[in-house]
Amino acid sequence: MSIASNPNMPTKDNPYASELLVNRLMTEGSDKETRHFELSLKDSGLDYLPGDSLGVVPTNCEQVIAELLNAVGLTGEESITLGEDTMILEDALMHRLACTVLSKIQIKKFNEIAQSDRLADLLKIENKDDLVDYMWGRELIDLFIEYPQSGLNAQDFTGLLRPMPPRLYSIASSLSAHPEEVHLTVAVVRYEGNGKERKGVCSSYLAERVGERVPCYLHPNKNFKLPDDPSIPIIMVGPGTGIAPFRAFIEERRATGASGKNWLFFGDRSQKTDYLYENEWESYHNDGLLNDLDLAWSRDQEKKVYVQHKMLEKKGQLWRWLQDGAMFYVCGDASRMAKDVDQALRTIAQEEGVMSEEDAGAWVKSLFKERRYLKDVY
Ligand SMILES: Cc1cc2nc3c(=O)[nH]c(=O)nc-3n(C[C@H](O)[C@H](O)[C@H](O)COP(=O)(O)OP(=O)(O)OC[C@H]3O[C@@H](n4cnc5c(N)ncnc54)[C@H](O)[C@@H]3O)c2cc1C
Ligand SMILES: NC(=O)c1ccc[n+]([C@@H]2O[C@H](COP(=O)([O-])OP(=O)(O)OC[C@H]3O[C@@H](n4cnc5c(N)ncnc54)[C@H](OP(=O)(O)O)[C@@H]3O)[C@@H](O)[C@H]2O)c1
Questions:
Q1: Any ligand 1 atom below 6 A from CB of 368
Q2: CB-based contacts of 243: which residues, under 8 Å, 6+ apart?
Q3: Rounded CA separation 26/203 (Å)
Q4: Torsion angle of the four alpha carbons 87, 90, 94, 100, in this order, in degrees rounded to the nearest 10
Q5: Longest C-alpha distance within the chain, in Å?
Q6: Closest residue (by CA) to atom 19 of ligand 1?
Q7: What residue ranges in 269-372 does DSSP mark as E strands?
Q8: How far apart are CA 251 and CA 245, in angstroms?
Q9: pLDDT tens across 245-296, in order?
Q10: What is the pLDDT of residue 376?
């Protein structure tokens, strides 16, 4: 039942407290941490289709909040109001407010109090690149450490903070294969910034949990769906966590006995440590459900090999599949990967379809328009 037709369906403001059934590290030995999660949907009323996402409403890390309170000079016991709700500051910081990632508007508000010439300079439009550099790796706490503020009251402090945004994750399971469950594939954000160990709010919230309840809701995506006609072939390009919806797709194609051919391009750093869902893909490939499986390991040799390189190696076959009406799906990094995959598609159209650059661009656009080229990128 859709959210629109059921007003009791969990939402981001009224999420379902799902039991976390499985939290498994998939990248043992890698310098990257990607985890597989299984959550229960028992009695939630939530049902989803492959291609949908799950919204997760995280809690901030207790230690991060304790350090922030210390830097701001507040105890957390102060009473504050958020909208119509009155609560203690610590609860607001844990559950309701974004307390780490910086925004320009936040720095602007902070500088109304701090009155720093340096920050004022960084906020000038002509210095926008310097501001991006300043913000990269810094969090809210760094502002208070670099520009200590004494006497800021708790209510005014909350005025610097925006509401905690939920995070979306592409669903990695099909309900047909896993009734009453939803699975996720999450790259845990951990990095060093401004000399300190940092972690992403939601990915680390999930990573550090076992057997607890996770507040979540369904975020349908009608623009990333399997074809209605099960005989249509599909080509899936999903490096890194971009693999998630394709696990859902293939499970659904198996469960429904879809006759269309399936082709996956997957890539990550190293075959030994980063081959997400290796046993599943190898077994789908061996039993013929997955007709083609092309893998790109970027760090297993000196020169980077990416999914788009594998597409170009198979350009003749890829062009034929597309001529035969295949759907083309891309999921994962929007900033570079999806653009490079798009370019590879244009190159293939030029070389295999013998088209000019302009005609190849128009042909790729027509794939979009016909809804045969679908993206779930972030
Ligand atoms: C439709 C959709 C589907 C998605 N599906 C998935 C999925 O299946 N799997 C998945 O893992 N993610 C997915 N995401 C991304 C996910 O929603 C989160 O954005 C991601 O998990 C990071 O959230 P976080 O709360 O852990 O990090 P946040 O607390 O939001 O921190 C992220 C921020 O940290 C900073 N940062 C990160 N790395 C560095 C660095 N190296 N140096 C300096 N600063 C840095 C940046 O400011 C960045 O914006 C999806 C997003 C969308 C929109
Ligand atoms: N802090 C960390 O340790 C860490 C680690 C991983 C991911 N992350 C975060 O998690 C997010 C999602 O991670 P993810 O697992 O989905 O993906 P990812 O780690 O960003 O990348 C997956 C694969 O795609 C490759 N790749 C990089 N640029 C590409 C391009 N232009 N075209 C095609 N492939 C490309 C990567 O190679 P190379 O990386 O070898 O270039 C890697 O092999 C990232 O956006 C990142 O912010 C953080």
A1: no
A2: 172, 185, 266, 276, 277, 331, 332
A3: 14
A4: 120
A5: 70
A6: 167
A7: 292-297, 327-332
A8: 10
A9: 999 999 999 999 999 999 999 999 999 999 999 999 999 999 999 999 999 9
A10: 97
d(CA 194, CA 230): 51
> Does any ligand 1 atom lie closer than 6 A to the CB of residue 169?
yes
CA–centroid distance, residue 317 to ligand 1 (Å):
34
Q: Which atom of ligand 1 is nearest to the CA of 203?
A: 26
pTM of the complete model: 0.96
Q: How far is the CA of 204 from the centre of ligand 1 (A)?
A: 10
Percent of the chain at pLDDT > 70 equals 98
Domains contained in the chain, CATH given: 16-57+166-219 (2.40.30.10), 62-158 (1.20.990.10), 234-377 (3.40.50.80)
What's the one-letter identity of residue 35?
R
DSSP assignment of 77-133 equals -SEEEETTEEEEHHHIIIIIB--SB--HHHHHHHHHHH--HHHHHHTSGGGHHHHHH
Residues 329 and 374: their CA atoms lie apart, in Å, by 5
CA atoms of 321 and 311, how far apart (whole Å) = 12
Using the Cα atoms of residue 5, residue 11, residue 15 and residue 21 in order, give the sign of their dihedral.
positive
One-letter amino acid of 155: Q
pLDDT band at 211 (very low <50, low <70, confident <90, very high): confident
The predicted pLDDT at position 8 comes to: 77
Cα 102 to ligand 1 centroid, rounded to whole Å: 14
Query: How confident is the model at residue 5, as a pLDDT?
Result: 56
pLDDT digits (tens, 9 = 90+) for 293-348: 999 999 999 999 999 999 999 999 999 999 999 999 999 999 999 999 999 999 99
The H or E element containing residue 173 is none
Neighbour count for residue 336 (Cβ, 10 Å): 10
